[in-house]
Design a protein that fits this description.
Elements: H1 13-32, H2 36-61, H3 69-86, H4 91-113, H5 119-138, H6 162-189, H7 191-201, H8 203-208, H9 213-239, H10 249-262, H11 269-283, H12 290-305, H13 309-326
Length: about 350
């Protein structure tokens, strides 16, 4: 009988308990917090977290420097808004269709993009975002609202009172974050995720193993585009409008900063990075421009000293804890005694291993 492989091998019972407590606290938070401004900041930050989860999938896991993700995010919002304004479809279905439209456009963008490499990929996707923003701002049909923003829509919960609607949006976006993270975790362990990381880290080896870079990355663009489109549709629904400023260069820089600070290519990196930047921006909201200086300084420290981000730093610390605990403590041994060798170096004539700096491991 074959052994059944665990879906989440890194999750111990203790970690599941901590995750359950954190999730329960997040679910109960809007019932304990009555300040609508605070809840608005939370919901907006969580929508950005959904966007960053989608961007992290194609940027960190697939390894494609796609700078057109905010255009896909905006197109999902505009697509859902047009449906809400001109059709009688349920608002929830409009959000899903907005995500599907964004996924289709993301695939179209991927066709020429994935035939390029390096900086040319970044330039093409950035040019795509600029073209989309220009069309939205300068269309003569009035369909997008131009620079003034999209016309007001009722959104998902327009028929509810403001307090109840705020709670409903909070729980809806929180549920989408949980589903997205579980989905990304499962995809990362699937054939698709393993193939994408192989293409990212060792393209020659991946090609030798029969992995098609074009097909796998097209799937990554489609999945990432759908989630980004859903995030854009949620932004439109929550704010009851959307403007071209959501996809400008400043917004793109902040979102990339969130990913780098949290940890590019990690599961929890988008959540942690979005939380850190959102807290800094909220605390310094009374000092315009200062928040960008602080965020830039944090980014500089991360890039120079912790290139793996906060999640990477936590992983390094956790992996070194056994080594630190195994080291002898001063004053424990007698003056004439020599400290014990690590257990890994003891055995039947097995020499101790040494690191590159000569320290015994």
């Amino acid at each position: 009988m074959t052994e059944r492989r665990a879906l989440f091998p890194d999750m111990s019972p203790t970690r599941w308990s901590v995750a359950g407590v954190v999730l329960l606290a997040l679910c109960l938070f809007p019932l304990a917090e009555s300040n609508q401004y605070v809840l608005t900041v939370f919901v907006t930050s969580m929508i950005l977290a959904v966007l960053n989860i989608s961007w992290n999938f194609v940027l960190g896991i697939a390894g494609v420097w796609n700078f057109g993700q905010l255009a896909i995010y905006a197109l999902g919002g505009y697509g859902a808004g047009i449906l809400m304004l001109h059709t009688s479809l349920p608002a929830a279905l409009d959000v899903i269709v907005g995500g599907l439209m964004a996924a289709a456009i993301s695939i179209v963008m991927a066709v020429p993009t994935l035939r390029l490499f390096g900086i040319y990929t970044s330039l093409l996707t950035f040019a795509f975002a600029e073209v989309v923003q220009y069309v939205i701002e300068n269309t003569s049909t009035g369909l997008t609202g131009g620079t003034f923003g999209f016309p007001s829509v009722r959104g998902l919960y327009g028929s509810l009172s403001p307090v109840v609607a705020m709670h409903a949006y909070y729980w809806t976006v929180l549920g989408i974050i949980v589903i997205s993270m579980v989905g990304v975790a499962l995809l990362s362990r699937s054939r698709l995720g393993i193939g994408l990381r192989a293409i990212r880290d060792a393209p020659g080896f991946a090609a030798a193993r029969g992995v098609s870079p074009l097909r796998y990355r097209m799937l990554a663009f489609a999945l990432s585009g759908f989630l980004a489109g859903v995030a854009g549709a949620l932004y439109l629904s929550f704010n009851q409008s959307i403007a071209p400023t959501v996809m400008g260069l400043t917004a793109m820089s902040i979102d990339v900063t969130m990913l780098v600070i949290g940890g590019l290519g990690t599961l929890f990196g988008p959540i942690i990075g979005t939380t850190i930047v959102a807290v800094v921006e909220t605390l310094l909201v009374s000092y315009p421009g200062i928040e960008f200086t602080v965020v830039g300084a944090v980014l500089l420290v991360i890039v120079i000293f912790v290139p793996g981000g906060v999640v990477g730093l936590a992983s390094r610390v956790r992996s070194r804890l056994p080594t630190w605990n195994a080291r002898p403590r001063p004053g424990v041994m007698g003056s004439g005694s020599s400290p014990p060798r690590p257990a890994a170096a003891l055995g039947d004539g097995v020499p101790a291993l040494h690191t590159s700096d000569g320290q015994e491991r």
